[in-house]
Each structure stands twice: as C-alpha cells, then as structure tokens.
Design brief:
Layout (H helix, E strand, L loop, with lengths): L6 H13 L2 H8 L3 H15 L4 E3 L4 E3 L1 H26 L6 E7 L4 H15 L3 E7 L2 H10 L4 E6 L6 E15 L21 E4 L4 H9 L12 E2 L2 H9 L4 E5 H5 L9 E4 L5 E9 L5 H17 L10 E2 L8
Parallel strand pairs: 3-4, 3-5, 7-8, 7-9
Antiparallel strand pairs: 1-2, 5-11, 6-9, 6-10, 6-11, 6-12
Length: 319
C-alpha cells in the first residue's frame, strides 16, 4: 500500500519554503513550531528522503527537496481549485478569498472600496496581503493568493485580467519651484535632476516614466522614497518634484502640504486591474469583486483639478 503525503504536510513544506524559517512558517500555518517540525519529519520519513537541511542559522532545501516542493505547490493549487469549484457553485463571494494588493494602490483604494464590498457580500472572508508586483504575481502562481490587484503594464504570467480604471499621473511640486504653473505639464519639461521616485522594486516608477514617454529619465539616485507618503514629505521639504497617481491624490495624500499637482500633458496613466490564474473556477466571482471596486471609484467625489477615472468594461477579460 502506498502512503501519500497529506495536504497539511505539503502546506507545512511550502510555508517553510516561502518563509525560510521554522518559526515564521509555523506562524503562517497557525501551528506551533514543534507541530510543524514534526509534520515535516513525518513527511521525510514517509518519502524516505531528506528534503530540508537544518542548522541553527539557515534552512536549505536539498535539490530533491526543491523538486518536491515545486510539486507540492501544484498539488495544493489543484486542491484549492477543487474547493473553489464547489464554493463557486454556491453563494458568490462567500468564504475565504486571498487578495494581494500592491503598496501604491492598497492604502488609497481599499478604504474607499472595501466597506461597499463587505456590505454587498457579508459572507466574504477577505484576507489581504500587501506586496510588490513581482512578489504578488509569484504568490498568485504558487497558489498562495487567489487574485491580485495591481497596475498595468506588468507581466504577471499566465493570468486573466480585468481592467478596472485608468489612473492618470500628476507632477507634484512645491509652489516655490514653479511660478505661475500651467494647467498641464509637458513630460519634456520634467527635470530629472530634481525628480524623486520610489526605490527599485516598485512598478509605479517605471510605469510613470514609460507612460509619460520618457523612459530615459533617471531620478536622483541619492534620494529614493520607500512609499508615496515619503515622496510627498520629500517634495514638501524642497528636495525635488515627483510623479503621483490620481488615486493617491484623491485620497488626500497632499492635503495640508501646500503642494501643487498638475496632470501630465498627453494623458499619461497606469491601468488598475485585477488578475487571477487562467482557468480559475472563481473567475466569475473575481469579476464581481472587480465590478464592486469599479462602482466604488465611480461614486467617489472627483477633485476639480484632476481628470475623471475612466472605468473599463467590467466583463472584459484580457489574456
């Protein structure tokens, strides 16, 4: 008789692979460290091989362990798809949903949108994870996230996409840096010697430069922000100018700072979208979630100095 690994053992194994630490992996699985360690020893005993090299400082997977954990991700994805298939046949947007959101969207969209989504779908149990685009897409591929809210253009692998709205970019500057500023700012007028952007790893930086038609621009390498809030404080301190999305401006990120925001000529904008694994049985639910996010944006009060968000077709899927 062949003894097969349990899903719980595979969950322990993938958690250790993701976190690289027994304690953090145990916390992620909501078990004690001794329980997780015992489960992994049982798995290794069952398979008759050592998957993980252990010492006090580092956790290292053996070459065979890397192959096994890759298969474990596949098994867990299929098991989750099986459970999702039955959930999708019942009440829509009920039960757990793991949503990844990038940092330049999460604090500016979710407080506005989630109350309406929760009111419309009271049985939804939403688990949020804020992460960079690359890490969120990798988690989606592994099956540790169900759907990701990010900004396009971004290559996220084999996913289906629902575009929600366009999010124009604005140049934000101190009033002392530009006397009598025009209604719109031409991208060619941006001085890269005074341009402040997010540090490497944030997709917004490259998207802003590409969308305004100046991918060759290089921000000040000695002054990089870790968040949009940090960039605003740097601009308020007369360290330079920055590019911010309308989503953050509508949320009041520069309120009380005295800073000025002007849209870029030519309509430079990113596209906010939901993405999920191709073939997911919960695709219809994800589109419902996207429609709820769109509705929240459409009912938001627009600022008079900014162009309106442009919603995409709620039913559109782009491969």
């Amino acid at each position: 008789m062949t003894f097969l690994p349990t899903l719980k053992q595979l969950q322990y194994l993938t958690a250790l692979h993701i976190h690289g630490h027994f304690g953090r992996a145990a916390d992620a699985c909501f078990v004690t460290q001794s329980t997780l360690s015992a489960g992994l020893r049982e798995l290794e005993s069952l398979l008759g091989v050592q998957l993980v090299e252990r010492n006090r400082r580092v956790v290292r997977f053996s070459p065979l362990g890397e192959q096994v954990v890759a298969k474990a991700y596949e098994v867990l994805r299929e098991a989750d798809a099986l459970a999702s298939l039955t959930r999708a046949a019942g009440t829509p947007l009920a039960g757990p949903l793991r949503l990844g959101v990038i940092p330049t969207i999460a604090p500016y969209l979710l407080p506005r949108a989630l109350p309406a989504v929760r009111a419309a779908y009271p049985e939804l149990k939403l688990y949020l994870r804020e992460d960079m685009s690359q890490a969120a897409c990798e988690a989606l591929a592994r099956g540790t996230l169900d759907v990701v809210l990010l900004a396009l253009p971004w290559e996220c692998g084999a996913v289906d996409t629902m575009e929600l709205f366009t999010d124009p970019f604005f140049l934000v500057f101190h009033p002392g840096d530009m006397i009598d500023p025009p209604p719109t700012v031409a991208p060619d007028a941006i001085d890269d010697s005074h341009l402040l952007l997010l540090e490497d790893g944030h997709c917004l930086k490259d998207q802003a430069l590409a969308m305004c038609g100046r991918p060759e621009l290089r921000a000040d390498p000695t002054a990089r922000g870790t968040s949009l809030v940090t960039l605003v404080q740097m601009v308020a301190g007369r360290l330079g100018q920055t590019l911010l999305p309308k989503l953050a401006l509508d949320a009041g990120i520069i309120d009380g700072t005295g800073l000025i925001a002007r849209p870029l000529a030519g309509g430079a904008a990113r596209t906010v979208a939901l993405v999920w694994r191709q073939g997911s049985p919960r695709a219809a639910e994800f589109r419902l979630l996207g429609a709820g996010l769109q509705a929240a944006m459409e009912t938001a009060v627009d600022r008079p100095d900014a162009p309106a968000m442009v919603p995409a077709n709620p039913g559109e899927s782009v491969e």
